[in-house]
Amino acid sequence: MQQIGSIEFELLRKPIKHMRINVLPPDGQVQVIAPDSFTDTAIRVAFAARISWIKKQQQAFQQQARQTERQWVSGECHYLWGKAYRLEVIEHSGAHQVRFGKDNYLQLWVRPNTKTENRAKVLHSFYRQELSHEIPRLLDKWLPRLNTELNDWRIKQMKTKWGSCNIEARSLWLNLELAKKNHACLEYVLVHELVHLLERNHNARFMAYMDQFLPDWRERRQLLNRQPLDAV
């Protein structure tokens, strides 16, 4: 980690033309991606020029609503597709599973004395199933529209990104946490990452593609940032 003023940041160097500064969820960690040709002085000057913007982005993350630390017990609030559900833990002798209960309850069926971390795994598996159902539908919709192809997609838990795209491998990673967000948020992240297959950098051409294919992408991004984060 490096530091300028009161702000710590991770510095990465890549064979690119322009320096990028990312303020990442969930807690506003700063990442600087600089061209290999940039000197340390050039990086510091460019960083200093963006300090006000960086602090504004970090403040937005700090003010964002957060869920309390999860214990996976009855009565807790858990989110699915942007909707809050109350968790009902039901002990039984059968297989672990999640079901929809009445009155906005999610039922977590587990064997007696199941440890907290294993209860979490059951719910995470449920989230993965939900995403695995939605993602192919969205890819069938968007790959033809963007006139591009994808070789592979996967789901994993990520601390600092909602998604990522490996352009050379034409593969897509999506954050498991997206199952907790509104469907519109998942679609926004997926389209954002697919557009990187058309334009690698977050430049004017990239923004023009986003405006063309998903005109309300800024509103969707705001919706994603307004929804509750997990506790940190």
Structure description:
The chain has 232 residues and is an alpha/beta fold. It folds into 2 domains: 2-63, no CATH class; 77-226, 2-Layer Sandwich (Zincin-like). It has helices spanning 40-48, 51-63, 116-146, 183-195, 204-213, 217-226; strands at 2-4, 7-14, 20-24, 29-35, 77-80, 83-91, 97-100, 105-110, 152-156, 163-166, 171-175. The radius of gyration is 20 Å and the shape is globular. The mean pLDDT is 90.
Outline the secondary-structure elements.
Layout: E1 2-4, E2 7-14, E3 20-24, E4 29-35, H1 40-48, H2 51-63, E5 77-80, E6 83-91, E7 97-100, E8 105-110, H3 116-146, E9 152-156, E10 163-166, E11 171-175, H4 183-195, H5 204-213, H6 217-226
Parallel strand pairs: 2-4, 6-8, 9-11
Antiparallel strand pairs: 1-2, 3-4, 5-6, 7-8, 10-11
Helix pairs in contact: 3-4, 4-6
